[in-house]
Design goal:
single chain, 11 helices, 0% strand
């Protein structure tokens, strides 16, 4: 109890954070995106946890799911998507360090994401070509490092693909990309011993989410409703990004 209160403002907040992490981990494990959604609430209640804790825990979560479904990963796409992710992460670093232009970029990304969700809902189809996967990776790297919410661009590209391949590929992509973001955030001292301890205290939530999100009944539901779930999560993420722009 004393150790928890050393890293969190109260036990009530810790339990709330644990609940949010479990929900995010279930969503990420089942759909391939969604773990960044808890960042919406955490940035309001405890801004110092975003993006450091979200990115750090997301790395472990994504890699765990990816290795559990390694055979289903579309490996060729990872080269193109990760190349974009690296570029996007580097672009975001000056904004994190100098806090210049953050609001404008978040508004732009949030609005573009809303437009993309609307067009997708109207039967507009985006093919998972090498070019689109690379562009989506770039946008994901930028948004993921800056806000902790980097899933939507990649998910939109894969919305019409087979669910088991989508979930496995997205998790590996986010595992590799988030690891790169962790290195960058560590270099600029946004991830330190305190953040690591915070994440370790929330680790049971990650493990619980992985177990629940990979249950057969959940996988079967996702297989039937993948596109709908992706668009719902992307819509929520767009709102989150816009809200963060004005905080």
């Amino acid at each position: 109890m004393l150790s928890i209160l050393s890293y969190y403002p109260s036990l009530e907040f810790y339990y709330l954070a644990m609940f949010l992490i479990v929900i995010g981990a279930i969503t990420q494990s089942a759909v391939g995106i969604g773990f960044g959604i808890p960042a919406c609430f955490l940035i309001i209640l405890e801004p110092t946890m975003v993006p450091s804790c979200i990115v750090l825990m997301g790395t472990f979560l994504a890699f765990s799911n990816a290795f559990l479904s390694f055979k289903d990963i579309i490996k060729d796409d990872l080269i193109y998507s990760f190349s974009g992710r690296v570029v996007g992460t580097f672009i975001s670093v000056p904004l994190i360090s100098l806090t210049i232009g953050t609001k404008s970029y978040l508004i732009i990304f949030g609005l573009l994401l809303l437009i993309t969700v609307f067009l997708s809902a109207k039967k507009w189809s985006i093919a998972a070509t090498k070019k689109n996967v690379t562009i989506a990776g770039l946008c994901s790297g930028f948004m993921g490092t800056l806000t902790g919410v980097g899933g939507p661009p990649m998910a939109i590209v894969y919305q019409n693909s087979d669910s088991k391949n989508v979930v496995a590929t997205l998790n590996m992509f986010f595992g590799i990309g988030a690891l790169f973001s962790v290195l960058v955030l560590t270099y600029i001292d946004l991830i330190n011993f305190r953040e690591i301890m915070r994440c370790l205290l929330l680790a049971p939530g990650i493990i619980t989410g992985i177990i629940l999100g990979r249950q057969k009944i959940v996988k079967d539901y996702v297989s039937i409703n993948l596109k709908k779930l992706i668009l719902i999560i992307c819509f929520i993420s767009a709102i989150i990004v816009l809200v963060q722009a004005f905080i």
